[in-house]
Amino acid sequence: MTGLIQIINGPNLNLLGKRQPEIYGFETLEDVEADCAALAADLGLQCAFYQSNYEGALIDCIHQARDKAAGIVINPAAYTHTSVAILDALKTFDGPVIEVHISNVHQREDFRHHSYVSLRADGVIAGCGTEGYQLALRRLATLIAD
Ligand code: CA2
């Protein structure tokens, strides 16, 4: 397996930096992708970046990662709180998985306090803004090297 990290983003994250900056900040998803690519190169890794507003497409991306990725960073967005299907897909992936939330979900509405994905994730980062993606990549670099 190569050092490829699959980064997966769920619904509405395509609007990052364009709406609700008080919650999600001013960086766009394209900015996050560029930051991740630069850090991955520093860490001797590559990353593939994906966003979809469709649950099935996110599941297909996880399935494809099974054959090509050493680790997954996933921000499932609202599907975090609803999707047993995404949890089941992640359970078919053998490598480490880090769950990222830009906002501190625990400071927000009660329905954001539960994550199905956390039942599979090896680590969870929340409330660190878009820097959370960088933290997740660093953690995966450690886990993959172990
Ligand atoms: O904090 C996070 O990263 C979330 O995963 C974001 C989800 C939310 O449903 C989760 O509870 C926490 C929402 C993503 C929506 O993204 C937007 C970005 C900019 C403008 C509007 C929505």
UniProtKB/TrEMBL annotation:
Substrate binds at N75, H81, D88, I102, S103, R112. Pfam families: DHquinase_II. The record marks R19 as: Transition state stabilizer. It catalyses: 3-dehydroquinate = 3-dehydroshikimate + H2O. Gene3D superfamilies: Dehydroquinase, class II. InterPro entries: DHquinase_II, DHquinase_II_CS, DHquinase_II_sf. One of its GO terms (molecular function) is 3-dehydroquinate dehydratase activity. Pathway: Metabolic intermediate biosynthesis; chorismate biosynthesis; chorismate from D-erythrose 4-phosphate and phosphoenolpyruvate: step 3/7. It is an enzyme of class 4 (lyase). The active site is at Y24 (proton acceptor), H101 (proton donor). One of its GO terms (biological process) is chorismate biosynthetic process. The keyword Amino-acid biosynthesis applies. The keyword Hydrolase does not apply. It comes from the Bacteria. NCBIfam families: aroQ (TIGR01088), PRK05395.1-2 (NF003805), PRK05395.1-3 (NF003806), PRK05395.1-4 (NF003807). Homododecamer. Catalyzes a trans-dehydration via an enolate intermediate. PANTHER family: CATABOLIC 3-DEHYDROQUINASE. Belongs to the type-II 3-dehydroquinase family. HAMAP family: AroQ (MF_00169). This is 3-dehydroquinate dehydratase. It comes from Pseudooceanicola algae.
